Amino acid sequence: MANQKLWGGRFSMGAAEILDTFNASLPFDKKLYKQDILGSKIHAQMLAKCGILTQEEANLISKGLEQVKSEIENGTFKFIISDEDIHLAIEKRLIEIIGEVGKKLHTARSRNDQVALDFRLFVLDSNKHLRFLVLNLITTLLNIARDHTQSMLPGMTHLQHAQPINFGFLLCAYACMFVRDFERLESSYQRNNYCPLGAAALAGTPYDTDRYFVAKQLGFTAPMLNATDSVSDRDFALDFLYDTSLLIMHISRLAEELVLWSSYEFKFITLSDAYSTGSSIMPQKKNPDVPELLRGKSGRVYGNLMSLLVVMKGLPLAYNKDTQEDKERVFDSFETLEISLRILNSALETMTIHTDFMLKACRVGHLSATDLADFLVQHCRIPFREAHHITGKAVAYAETLQKDLSELSVEELCCVDSRIPKEAHKSLDLKASMESRNSYGGTSTQSTLVQIESLEAWLNLAKNTLEEV
Q1: Are strands 152-157 and 160-166 parallel, antiparallel or unpaired?
Q2: Do 261 and 288 contact (CB within 8 A), yes or no?
Q3: What is its main location (predicted)?
C-alpha cells in the first residue's frame, strides 16, 4: 500500500485504519489552524532572514498559507483523518498548492516545537479573551453595587442571619474575587509568554536561526531558554486550567447565591424570563437553570485540570504522545468559561432586585445583637464576654415575645438587665448598625463607596493594560 504520510519514508507499510483513528488529533486540534498558519508564516520569514530560504520562497509560502487559511474559513478545505493533525494537514495542502517549495517550510523545526507554539498561542489568546470577559463582569457588579449601597439585607455566616450589610457591599466581595481571577490570569500570561519555536525536536537545530526574531514577531517576551523544556512543557496549559478552575469556583459561589435569592424563601431577586426556564409538568414554575448550570459547570472544569495533571505526572523528557491529551481539556475549559462569563453577566444585568424583601429579612434573626453588646462595652465599661451574655438574654427575651431584638421597646430592653441603660436602645436600629461599620473594608455606605471607587480605579487601569497586550 502506498504510504501517504509526510513522515513515512522509513516505513514500508501504511498505517492501519484504526491507528489513524486512534492516533489522530485532527478532529479537535483543527481549532489551532490560525495559530499554526501564523507560526509557519513567521518561521518562513525567519528562514529567509537567515538565508536558509530565499525571500521569493518565503513569500510564496506565505501566499500559499493564506490560501489554506481562506479554504479552511470558507469551508472548502478537506480534513482527512489520515493527515493526523492540523500541522500535517496544512503542510500537505500547502505543498499541493505551491509545489516543492512547500516542502522547505519544515526546515529547522519539528512538529514538537510547532505544536508547542500553536497550543501556547491558543492558551495565551484564550487567557486574554477571558480577562476581557472578567472585566465586563466586574463592571456589571460595580454598576449594580453603586445603586445599592444603602439597600440592606442580612449578612450571613453558616447561612444564618448575622449582621446587617448592604447589597453593594456584598457585590464588592464578589468583585474582589474576580479581581484576583483576573490577576491570576494576567500573571500566568506573563509567566508563559515565551516562545518554544526553534527548539526543534528536543535539542535545538544545527541551522543558524534567529529565535529572537520569531519570538518578537509572534508577540512573545523572548524564546524559551531550554529546547527540551520548550517541547515538553505544559505548565502553561496547567496554569490556565488552574486559573479557570478558581474562576469557575467563584462563578459557582455567586450562582448559588442567585439560586437562593431567587427562591420564594428569600425573594431578594427575580431572574429575567430570558434567563429562566419552566417545568414540563408544573406550569407555575420559573426555574433558575442558568445559575444551576453555572454551578454544575465547575465539575467539568475541575476534571479537566485533574486530567492533565495525571497525564503529565509520569512523563520523562522530552516530548511524549501523551501530551496530545492536553488540548481537549483546555479547549473545553475555555469554551465553558467563555459562555459562563457571558451568560452570568447578562443574567446579572437583567435581574430585578427586591430591596423590600431584603429589608424585611433583616428584621429576622436579631441582626443588631452585636451592636448592643458593643454599646455595653463602649459606654458602660462592661467586659465584652459579660456584654455578650447580657445580649444573649435580651435575644432570648425577645423570642419569648415573638419579636426581633430590633423591635423591642426601650422598656422591654431595659427590663432584661439592670445594667442596660435607655440609651442602649438606639444600638438596636438596623440602619445604624450597618452604618456604624465604617472601618476600612466595612459595610457602611461610606466604606462601600470607597471600595467601589477603589475597584473602579483598578478596573480602569486593568482595561488600559489589557488593551496594550
Answers
A1: antiparallel
A2: no
A3: cytoplasm
